[in-house]
Design brief:
Layout lengths: L1 H12 L2 H19 L4 H9 L6 H19 L39 H4 L11
Amino acid sequence: MGCTASLVALLATMGGHWLVFQSIAWATMIVNNAQHGSLNWAVSRTFDGKHPCAICVSIQEGRQQEQTANKTIPLFQPHEENTLMFDPASSTLLLPSLVDREVVPFVPNWHSDFLESPLTPPPRMG
């Protein structure tokens, strides 16, 4: 479910919804044109660009409106001074106190053989 939602969100942000709408429009056009001629003629008429259907026209208008709306959103304006949303110089970082906490060794006590140094010289087999 989460993967599907992420994929849908990614496609929507990249304009994938227009591809879905356009594919539906092309399929509809091929079916409608095939009723009046051969399949080859229907496909060529659908993709020649000279005979758009009402759905294709509305998709084109929607894409143009979306592109002009995206151009009016200011992402970066070089004439203005860049400001940070978070200013690290004006904020303080509070760290927890470590004095009143018990220090736990990395290796627990029940593995005391790990804390001792090895025998010198090492024992010999045999």
